[in-house]
Amino acid sequence: MADNTLILYVCTSNATKLSVSPGIRLWGHTSGISDAEITARGKAVSVSSQGEEIRVWELEGRVSGKSIEVRPNSIANDALTSAYGPWSEPSSSRWNDRRSWVGFDDEMVLVLKETSDGRESLMMYDFS
Predict the structure, then answer these.
(1) I want to staple 23 with a disulfide (CB 3.0 to 4.6 A). Which of 7, 90, 102, 111 is the partner?
(2) d(CA 86, CA 81)
(3) Measuring CA to CA, how many Å separate 70 from each of 13, 46, 83, 94, 122?
(4) What is the CA radius of gyration of the chain?
């Protein structure tokens, strides 16, 4: 969506009928969303297309989704922020990276990252 949100629809079906619930808007991302995954148990992960923002969603049994923001913190990220300030963007190719896939289980999140020159790297966030 243009406002950096996701809309969750619950679909149910049987042999004769398909139902789609009204959408629930999920707020929280600060930039566009490149991918999201959801399990049948109501857990979801979404990853932003720019920046290093991942959101972990607990959706089961809730009227509106709540998320936890996960941002990796490293010395390189801190140095860039202090050198350029939080709102300016350096010309480094690091900012041209695109997140193109996300997958997860109960203990970790995997993000496939692609750079502008086509190189790929797999990032793992371990919560165990």
Answers:
(1) 7
(2) 5
(3) 34, 10, 23, 19, 17
(4) 17
Residues 63, 24: Cα–Cα separation, whole Å: 8
The pLDDT assigned to 15 comes to 94
Instruction: Judge whether 104 and 37 are in contact, CB under 8 Å.
Output: yes
Segments making up each domain of the chain, as ranges: 6-11+21-126
Residue indicated by tokens 């929280």: 28
Tokens at 44, concatenated: 């979801």
Q: Identify the burial level of 28 via C-beta atoms within 10 angstroms of its C-beta, where 0-12 means exposed, 13-18 middle and 19 or more buried.
A: middle
Q: What is the rounded average pLDDT of the residues 54-83?
A: 60
Given a cut of 90, is residue 26 above it in pLDDT? Answer: no
CB-based burial label for 56 (10 Å; 0-12, 13-18, 19+): middle
Q: Which two tokens mark 88?
A: 């300016």
Rounded to 5 degrees, φ, ψ at 116 are -65, -25
Closest CA relative to residue 55, chosen from 37, 81, 73, 76: 37
